[in-house]
Amino acid sequence: MAGKLQDKVQREASIQQNQVLEDFRWAVTSRHASLMGRKEVFMGKAKFGIFGDGKELAQLAMARAFQKGDFRAGYYRDQTFMMALGELTVQQYFAQLYAHTNVEADPASAGRLMNGHFATRSLNEDGSWKSLTSQYNASADISPTAAQMPKLLGLAFASKLFRNNKALKEFTDFSVNGNEVAWGTIGNASTSEGMFFESINAAGVLQVPMVVAVWDDGFGISVPQEFHTTKGSISEALLGLQRTDTEKGFEILRVKGWDYEGLMQAFATAGQLARESHVPVLLHVEEMTQPQGHSTSGSHERYKSKERLQWEHDWDCILKFKEYIISSGFATADHLDEIEAAVKVEVKRLKDAAWAEFSGEVKVELEEVLSLIRSTAEKSTRKVLLIQLADDLKKTINPIRKDVVSTVRKVLFLLRAEGDGIKKELKEWYCQQQEKNFDRYNSHLYSQTATAVSNCQVIPAQVNENSPLVDGREILQAFFDYTLEHNPQFFAFGEDVGKIGDVNQAFAGLQAKYGEWRVMDTGIRECTIIGQGIGAALRGLRPMAEIQYLDYLLYAIQLLSDDLATLTYRTKGGQKAPLIVRTRGHRLEGVWHSGSPIGMILSSLRGMIVCVPRNMTQAAGMYATLLQSDEPALVIECLNGYRLKEQMPQNIGQFTVPMGIPEVLREGSDLTVVTYGSMCRIVMDAAAELAEIGLSLEVIDVQTLLPFDTQGIIGQSIQKTNRVLFADEDVPGGGTAFMMQQVLDNQGVYSHLDAAPQTIAAQAHRPAYSTDGDYFSKPSVEDVVEKAYQIMHESNPKKFPAL
Ligand SMILES: Cc1ncc(C[n+]2csc(CCOP(=O)(O)OP(=O)(O)O)c2C)c(N)n1
Fold this sequence. Notes:
Blueprint: H1 2-12, H2 17-42, H3 56-65, E1 71-73, H4 79-85, H5 90-98, E2 137-138, H6 148-164, E3 182-187, H7 194-206, E4 210-215, E5 219-220, E6 223-224, H8 234-237, E7 251-256, H9 260-277, E8 281-286, H10 306-314, H11 317-327, H12 333-379, H13 383-395, H14 401-414, H15 420-441, E9 469-471, H16 472-486, E10 490-494, H17 510-514, E11 519-521, H18 526-538, E12 542-547, H19 554-564, H20 567-570, E13 580-585, H21 598-604, E14 609-611, H22 616-628, E15 633-638, E16 645-647, E17 663-666, E18 671-675, H23 679-691, E19 697-701, E20 704-706, H24 713-721, E21 724-727, H25 735-746, E22 758-760, H26 770-777, H27 781-795
Parallel strand pairs: 1-2, 1-3, 3-4, 4-8, 7-8, 10-11, 10-12, 12-13, 13-15, 14-15, 18-19, 18-21, 21-22
Antiparallel strand pairs: 5-6, 9-16, 14-20, 17-19
Helix pairs in contact: 1-9, 2-4, 2-5, 2-11, 2-12, 3-4, 3-9, 5-12, 6-7, 6-18, 12-13, 12-14, 12-15, 13-14, 14-15, 16-22, 18-19, 21-25, 23-27
The structure holds thiamine diphosphate (TPP).
Thiamine diphosphate is lined by residues 77, 143-145, 187-190, 215, 217, 219-221, 294.
């Protein structure tokens, strides 16, 4: 089937001379950028380099088949593709190599990522969407091998939704009838990763317009192919996925990386098939080379045989391209040499321009500092030392910002005993630079737009004595019903979410009501569930991806951490994926159904909002807030809360819960207890018991852990009670340690404390099974009562004698 289709496309797209010569120009432009890039690293002007040499021709073919509105999710070899599309200039290429922090200089990452990490900007400066269908799109790259695959699935899946859900037809800035193809690139060795196989399988099941091109150069750094892939060939290994006349599956194409016509034909075929028929395609590009080896970290002569090196030389795709051009009569050898010579000059000019701009900024700062230090030295008793520091700084070869700023800080430290007048100007300079450097290196961990969660409208839940008491899950069900009706971009998916409406039935009946493109089941594949959500969110949709139990978040934590949580930061606000991850956790039953690994989450998901609602009303309010915002979030519902009774708010779907604002659940005067999630009820029960003996607890539900208490409500409580206990169900030193650090470091409470701040957490092991297992593994009411009492005993042993 593939053969016939390929022939047809070839006949339609006969190769033109001007196209060939333009492609040649791009190929040699990219190649010389690679060659010069490596030299820049060895000259000490950049720290590390990884380049796209040897992969040029296939990328030109991919660029030819790529259309506006399409998305790429690829890896660090794709410079030729980006250049040929006009999405990466040579100057920008070098700016990234030098880590130039200006967005204009390096629009992909503003100097935040190693070279070879590509991205287009999907957002305007105010964070609003650009018209994605009017531009070429590259989702922002990450370094972990194969981690581009899950979001690739999502990018392709979005086309499926846009094509099949009529309510989405109006969103023409995101899609035109789902005609967009998601193009992936991956190295041959990286196809060994689980993420690759999981994504490929899911794409076959979902039949999404995804083309995966494998750049096969026979190695993964030093390790040859036979260590990576069964039968030594990914297209062989995946043959079982090949579609047939009667069965859906993948189209699998093989082509050589030096065969210009073959590549053009294969990519055109793949693009057409995916675009028109939503058939996923695996395009195995074999016999690629790596002329300069893997990266600047090593040399391939150490592990490639002489024969292999010779073969790579002889089958270099640009060499073969030249032979093809000459033998086809498109140009003479001399003409090609002329083109290449001119390209080389131009690449060098643009490289030098990038360096001049990058180093020029630092030079200005350096000169300012030298003059400030010298003038300060004249007035200082430490003159000799200051002049020495200035001279040392002046002598630095290829100075960077660190050299300048660290010298200033050393000088200010030396001047610590001298009057403010002497160091005023230097200090002012340093303060201004701190602000600028924060913007350069530390901004955009979270959204900085008007739709950041912090700007969302607060609408209280309306509940009165007539509000009916219902099961917690019914509150969520009413919320999802409202949202599905009012927000066409919203859809929910996950294991058992569709037909039965999730294992706790919060979506019960909603697939029947809104259809399979709004509420859907997936295979058991947590990582690609998240990838599916990230990709769809990158394309303007509002997905809610469900992880059935919090314990299984581990399968997806790498992707959440590396991709979703870093997205805004690593593009400096150039892309967003406002995915909501819904899950349920805390206490229920046993090792894998009652986890509360909050420390793990907090350490790995900075960049995401983390909500820990104590009940389903709060959860519904948090979802409403998140849907107003453009930030990605994890919401952990209480596993044991779906059947507990809550009052149904009249304004379900509309009321919101503000993020970063704890709620005081009970006022008290002796001890502040800070907690969240399922522990709220335990602590409230303990507070009621302790009240009977005259001990007054103030109970605070933090509600969200990221952001954490942005208004210092906990600190205000401690000023009143002078004692604090942090309680949760994580391991000791997990979530409680985080909360304590936040309060001690940021809220200035130390001087108000009359007793050591304390924590209460679960045992360090996973929870044992059943009710007794829970009692002896997780903090119980008695544990909280005794711990709180103990703190009071230390303060006043007379009133509270030892237990
Ligand atoms: C998860 C992960 N493991 C290891 C690495 C280190 N690493 C970077 S590239 C690479 C080899 C990749 O080889 P291949 O997929 O064939 O791509 P190529 O570089 O040859 O184009 C390795 C092991 C990484 N980036 N991510």
